[in-house]
Design goal:
Blueprint: H1 3-19, E1 36-40, H2 47-63, E2 67-71, H3 78-85, E3 93-98, H4 99-108, E4 120-128, E5 130-134, H5 143-152, E6 157-161, H6 167-179, E7 183-187, H7 191-199, E8 205-209, H8 210-213, E9 221-225, E10 251-257, H9 263-277, H10 282-288, E11 291-296, H11 298-319
Parallel strand pairs: 1-2, 1-3, 6-7, 6-8
Antiparallel strand pairs: 3-10, 4-10, 4-11, 5-8, 5-9
Helix pairs in contact: 2-9, 4-11, 6-11
Length: 325
Amino acid sequence: MSPSITRRGLAPLALAAAALPRFAIAQPAWRPNRPVRIIVPFPPGGATDMLARLVAQGLGNRLGQPLVVENRPGGVGVVATQNLLGAPADGHALIFATCDTHTIMPAANPRLPYNAAEFVPVTGVATTVMALIARPGLGVTNVQQFLERARTARPGLAYGSYGVATVSHAAGEMLKQASGIDMTHVPYGGAGPAILAVTADQVDCTVVPVAVGNPQRSRSVMLGVASAERFPLVPEVPTLTELGLPVVADAWIGLLAAPGTPGTVAESLHAAVAEVLATSDFAETLRSNGFSQQGYGPARFAEHLRAERARWGKVVREARITIEG
């Protein structure tokens, strides 16, 4: 058979093959080959640390390697983030990041030694639900009374936060922007000290996680939750939006990997985390500790983070929030 005849005979077969649907070859799921570090940018014992340890505990068997939680507090996430940057971008080191550390702080400090937007989204784990809480001596029982008091008080009211350039700080500014009131910001070194300052009548109000404020309701007034819907932990408390204030200050919590981490690694990690989130007791643990479940995969989480950077960035710019206060 001549070469020309061979080409003529093969041409129809080549055309037919080209017309067939192309099926992607399934890639094996990534698995770690050594212990995985989860870096937490806050001290041990807090809500974020507790959530990270719950996730780590459930992930160990699913990934076939132990997960080690490392607390690296400092600089609202700066210390922990720089620690992750020093690790290989191979999925064996992750950061349990928050809206504080990778949305608010980068917007308030353009001089950070890294670009927070370059970190690889792995999975959105949960959302922290925030609440507006007033001191007992302010003499208000609802948002309308609070706003009237804020507009007429001389000197003006002061609101406490759990730190400069945090969600608590930005949420207070969001409240000011939505209502037209003016208040002085007083930062504290954590949500616990902020709510205790309210119960002691040292500041007039604060915006802190519901889980922090709920145990102190006998000594304070929870005026409203800063979320789109009422929260099951305090179903009787209306949302600020219901009361005419479009203040939604939900704060994301999730896992990020170092810049350059392959997408296959992020997808495999998300699949393992999703199994943990789907366990029967995890949802109740979240609810009882003031979280709502998120469970976003890498693509949706990336989209959510872009939207959050735009939303909170606008608040930070308009309020002129900087790390200097």
